[in-house]
Write a structure and sequence with these properties.
The complex is a heterotetramer of chains A (81), B (197), C (253) and D (571). Chain A is mainly alpha-helical. Chain A has one domain. Chain A is built from 2 helices and no strands. The longest helix of chain A is centred in the middle third of the chain and has 44 residues. Chain B is built from 5 helices and no strands. Chain C is α+β, with helices and mostly antiparallel strands. In chain C, 37% of the residues lie in helices and 24% in strands. Chain C is elongated. The relative contact order of chain C is 0.15. The chains are: A mainly alpha (81), B mainly alpha (197), C alpha+beta (253), D mainly alpha (571). The interface between C and D is large, with 96 and 106 residues.
Chain lengths: 81, 197, 253, 571
């Protein structure tokens, strides 16, 4: 995903609160319930991405280390000085 | 561009087939823990949402959870993680020496589960049941789910101890069991915070 | 597009149709462009003897731009769509008219709609409320605020000619608005599956002129708690219709 | 049981009849061989596909000819209709698309394409299929219990699904939940296997960027599945407890929250779309490179868009709930993320079209399927924008437009993608070639009726026809004669399409016996599975695993006389 897309997304998201101020139809649940939904939405979206990013980074470093190791093993040993 | 990595002079045959990036058992357990982490995330989210609907939480007329005595419990569980980590380090140096710290970690974990069960009996007697209120439902669902994982992880650790006693335990199997136990330990503070406090 | 099938009978119907048309034009352009290129390539590069295929990695800049330029153009199209969609959404779902003509209550249950109209005094929950089953009567060119309630499961209050849909959730009151612009009688659907009788939950909305509406109201005795429409009461509706439904299925029609 | 059955070795064990019988069981039923398990998943998935197709036939007949006795089913009552619709959806997504695309192709292709002898956890792999098989039987058993099968739509929104007084299917809904939960456990075990195998068991010399795209995509799909299924398992447990134990998690009368289920369900439900989409995308990539004799355009871009799709797929799910009573302000954020996810998907389609440029395209049966996938999925993709934009979703939500949209995505994924994969790897699976003429007949006989089914449904949806209604007579605006005509067109096309599947089944089974011998590499393809025997023996490469020297898509390289350059050929 390009960074420009994310920047645009955030810019648009910033426009949203202006509209939200006018929210007169906020349904008849408690304010607390509304925030619980928003909060858990963010939590459930971010948590897997965080976990996977962590695991991905860890595996990637392991793989790169291994590939470097094998590259080194494949090169002919330099003659002893 | 990934150029062809051909290099005819170099022999690749010395490389063992199926060389693992990470021990398969460890990686498999880590992936399993991702699912479990999201399972608990779902439960915690559900709890948060239902709790936000309530006028008063915990609901009136329901027994209070034993916050203080569970702290003792929590301490035992949290302590088991460094003990297990230590056992892992010893295991790498000298297998046989890991028996004792591993047994200690299992003991701490078993204490946690047993004490938890004892507290449940008290709460049941006081009238907090699965159907008595949302509070009770979530308490038994979430803490029970955690207890089930704790028991499963303990079984894995006991199995590892048995294998270690027979000197047949592989580092991968030990790592897998340990990762699952770390997960059980790591989830608990979150549950304690959300459910008890 | 939609107005070819259904009249636009509310103030925001045209806005929603505009968003739909905008999306149709933008994605239609990309669809036909991609499909055209696709079929042209299939024809142009079909296998011919002695003509080998080219070796193109797609990693060089001059090749990659065939992907990246459309990529940015699509992003621009997305922004147009997002802005239009959000504007309409805010208008329909977030803003409420400041001085509604009246408030009405819509109650969904398995498997009937109950509509509570404020009687001649224009206030809900007073003695002259008019309760109807499966028939909602509103005045044309007047903003209405509705409150949706459910007695059992999820329903969905859907009026296609208004381009309006909103789930009805038990335990909550959901508020929204509409303003009809054309007189006539149209369907009200339940668009969320609500059990065996889901297909038997049709309502009708009658949009009438101020004079007709006043005449209808005057014809109703005050405090009709169990108003009758087509001879069924609220309580009896579910059961009767289910019986009717099994009859439908058994007697081929 | 999992531990007790030993795999027979290649030698010995055939001296007594008893042993011989054992070896059939252990070879085909309790095997740990990834290819056998893949076939088990494929055949189970196909059988479930037939059942799901039959359900579609029964309820489409009711819609086209309301009140008529449907041949093979009988009268379709409203309760029947709901059960059929619900189980059609459930079966097609969870018991056809998932097992065939992820499990069957994942099991068959991953070890063969990365060059190893088997999965890293073969016994867990077998356990995965056994649980899956049980789950299928559990689901089907719900049709024979009192009250009938669950009829609350495949999304199972409570309170309808949570309370038997509302759903009137006391046992059916519990069985449904149990079956779905079992099925998730099966794929969770499979997913662990796929990811670990792809990471750990690659052939010597195979770097991450030498892995074929289809393997990458199955792995990413497994990751998406595993990271998203947890909350739904939690929700399924809660729903089961609501149904049977007397808790009230989803019951607003007791402080529960019905929207909570939608929250948990769609958190899984949307990534699930990409879980099944990605393997089909990968299969298409393999096929178009082979039959266009072209290198895949921008391999790394495809890979990064795959990752991008995976990341974004976790942030779009609430667009299913725009009008479900969530905070209306959340719709803005989810409109934006939903339209953002159109970008990587569009980019993938562009890459595939660009791959065709400069190629030498052979229109064999697998290639036709792959091309049809791109085209039909394009229609599914662009119509999704109407539903992802909050403003237009107010109108389109829960209409037949939605239905036609997701069938235009799921049909290319689950049916076209499957047929593409099966016809392409059939020579490897069974060592025989399929009949090309019958294959093409089946192709046109499936794709043309498919469009005739769902284009009318787009029109009906645009005209306001809402979903899951067993008979539109009660809605004056929806019972116009032209609409009924369109419903009949769709139904007749469906019957034709189902009939044409007989051609496939004939071709599939007849070719096993009468097909031409395929040889190792009939399509002149680069990837490793084509260096094994057809069909590969247990262990895949008994003479030793292949070494890998390059990426999988080196077709028509200018330095070579041949127009392909297998991954395992040194130079």
């Amino acid at each position: 995903m390009s960074r420009a897309a994310l920047a645009i997304a955030f810019a648009l998201a910033l426009l949203v609160p202006g509209a939200a101020e006018a929210c007169s139809v906020c349904f008849s649940t408690t304010e607390e319930n509304r925030w619980a939904f928003i909060g858990t939405t963010v939590f459930m979206s971010v948590l897997p991405l965080g976990i996977l990013f962590g695991i991905g980074t860890w595996l990637r470093s392991k793989v790169l280390e291994m590939e470097r190791h094998h590259e080194a093993a494949r090169l002919p040993t330099p003659p002893a000085p | 561009m990934s150029a062809p990595i051909t290099n005819p002079e170099l022999e690749l045959v010395d490389e063992a087939p199926g060389r693992p990036v990470v021990e398969s058992a460890v990686l498999g357990t880590v992936l399993f823990c991702v699912v479990e982490a999201m399972l608990f995330a779902g439960l915690v989210s559900a709890h948060t949402i239902v709790r936000s609907n309530a006028v008063e939480w915990p609901p009136p007329g329901q027994p209070r959870l034993p916050i203080e005595s569970t702290l003792l419990n929590t301490a035992a569980l949290l302590l088991s993680a460094p003990v297990l980590f230590y056992a892992g380090r010893v295991f790498r140096r000298n297998r046989r020496d890991a028996l004792r710290p591993l047994a200690l970690a299992i003991g701490l974990g078993a204490f946690f589960v047993a004490f938890q069960g004892y507290e449940w009996l008290g709460l049941l007697r006081e009238g907090l049941t699965l159907t008595s209120s949302q509070h009770g439902s979530f308490f038994y669902l979430m803490i029970g789910m955690h207890a089930a994982h704790a028991v499963a992880a303990l079984v894995a650790l006991v199995w590892a101890w048995q294998r270690l006693f027979d000197l047949r335990l592989t580092p991968g199997a030990f790592g897998g069991a340990a990762v699952f136990w770390y997960f059980v330990v790591a989830v608990w503070p979150v549950l304690y915070w959300r459910v008890y406090l | 597009m939609i107005e070819r099938y259904l009249v636009q009978a509310s103030t925001f119907a045209a806005d929603i149709d505009f968003v739909i048309n905008l999306i149709a034009v933008l994605v239609g352009f990309w669809f036909f462009l991609t499909a055209g290129v696709f079929f042209w390539l299939l024809f142009r590069f079909r296998r011919r003897d002695g003509v080998p295929s080219e070796y193109i990695t797609g990693e060089e800049k001059e090749h990659k731009r065939f992907i990246s330029i459309p990529h940015y153009l699509i992003m621009v199209c997305d922004i147009f769509i997002i802005v239009a969609a959000i504007q309409v959404w805010v208008n329909v779902k977030q803003d409420l008219p400041e001085n509604p003509h009246a408030e009405i209550r819509v109650i969904g249950q398995q498997w009937a709609w109950t509509f509570v109209h404020p009687g001649p005094d224009g206030e809900l929950d007073t003695a002259d409320d008019i309760v109807t089953v499966e028939e909602l009567r509103v005045e044309v060119n007047q903003p209405y605020v509705f409150h949706l309630e459910s007695r059992d499961v999820l329903h969905n209050f859907s009026v296609p000619v208004f381009r309006l849909k909103q789930d009805v959730i038990p335990g909550r009151v959901i508020t929204g608005w509409f303003e009809a612009t054309k007189t006539g009688t149209h369907d009200i659907q339940c668009a969320e599956i609500c059990g065996i009788g889901h297909g038997l939950m049709p309502g009708r909305i009658v949009i009438e002129s101020a004079a007709d509406h006043a005449a209808w109201m005057a014809g109703k005795a005050p405090n009709q708690l169990a108003a009758t429409v087509r001879g069924t009461t609220v309580a009896a509706t579910g059961g009767t219709k289910l019986a009717a439904a099994s009859g439908d299925a058994l007697n081929a029609n | 049981m999992a531990e007790s059955i030993e795999h027979p070795g290649h030698a010995g064990g055939h001296d007594a009849p008893h042993d011989h019988e054992m070896s059939f069981w252990s070879k085909y039923i309790f095997s740990t061989d990834h290819k056998v398990i893949a076939m088990q998943y494929l055949f189970t998935g196909m059988a479930m596909g037939l059942i799901g197709g039959f359900f579609a036939y029964a309820f489409r007949m009711q819609l086209a000819f309301p009140g008529m006795e449907v041949p093979g089913w009988g009268m379709v009552s409203p309760a029947d209709y709901n059960s059929l619709v619900t189980n059609h959806g459930t079966i097609m997504i969870f018991w056809v698309a998932m097992p065939v695309l992820i499990a069957a192709f994942g099991n068959f292709l991953i070890p063969l394409m990365i060059g190893c002898d088997d999965m890293v956890f073969p016994k867990i792999n077998r356990l995965s299929f056994q649980i899956f098989f049980v789950s299928a039987i559990v689901l089907l058993s719900s049709f024979f219990v009192p009250g009938g099968a669950f009829g609350g739509a495949w999304t199972a929104y409570p309170p309808l699904s949570a309370n038997p007084n509302y759903s009137l299917t006391p046992m059916g809904s519990s069985i449904w939940v149990v079956a779905v939960a079992l099925e998730f456990i099966a794929f969770l075990l499979g997913g662990i296997n796929f990811i670990t195998t792809a990471m750990n068991a690659r052939a010597p010399g195979m770097k991450l960027y030498d892995i074929p795209i289809v393997v990458w995509m199955i792995v990413v799909a497994s990751i998406l599945f595993m990271a998203s299924v947890g909350p739904l398992i939690a929700g399924a447990i809660m729903l089961f407890m609501d149904q049977n134990i007397g808790t009230h998690f989803f019951d607003p009368a007791y402080g529960g929250d019905p929207i909570l289920w939608q929250h948990l369900f769609w958190f899984f439900g949307h990534p699930e779309v990409y879980v099944v989409l990605l393997p089909a995308m990968g299969i298409t990539a393999e096929i178009i490179t082979v039959f266009a004799r072209k290198k895949l355009f921008a391999y790394r871009t495809v890979l990064y868009t795959t990752f991008g799709t995976g990341v974004l797929s976790f942030t779009v799910w609430a667009h299913h709930q725009f009008i479900a009573g969530i905070d209306p302000r959340m719709a803005h954020v989810f409109t934006i993320t939903t339209l953002l996810i159109s970008i990587p998907i569009a980019e993938m389609c562009f890459v595939y079209v660009a791959t065709l440029y400069g190629g030498s395209i052979t229109f064999s049966t697998p290639m036709l399927w792959a091309l049809a996938f791109i085209f039909e999925f394009l229609i599914g993709g662009v119509t999704g924008i109407f539903l992802g934009a909050s403003g237009s979703d107010i109108y389109f939500h829960d209409t037949y437009f939605v239905l036609a949209h997701f069938h235009y995505t799921f049909f290319p994924i689950a049916i076209i993608g499957t047929f593409a994969g099966v016809t392409f790897w059939y020579p490897k699976m069974f060592g025989k070639m399929m009949n090309d003429t019958l294959g093409k007949l089946h192709f046109w006989g499936t794709v043309i009726p498919f469009n005739l089914i769902f284009i009318p449904l787009f029109v009906l949806g645009a005209a306001g026809q809402h979903r899951r209604i067993y008979n539109y007579e009660h809605f004056p605006e929806l019972s116009a004669p032209w609409m009924q005509d369109l419903r009949q067109v769709a139904t007749i096309a469906l019957v034709v399409m189902l009939g044409m599947q007989l051609v496939f089944f004939y071709n599939f089974f007849a070719s096993m016996f009468r097909g031409k011998a395929a040889g190792k590499n009939p399509w002149k393809s680069n990837t490793l599975e084509w260096t094994a025997d057809s069909p590969p023996p247990h262990g895949n490469w008994p003479e030793g695993l292949p070494n890998v020297y390059r990426g999988p898509y080196e077709y028509s390289h200018p330095d070579r006389d041949d127009d392909y350059w297998p991954q395992n050929v040194p130079s």
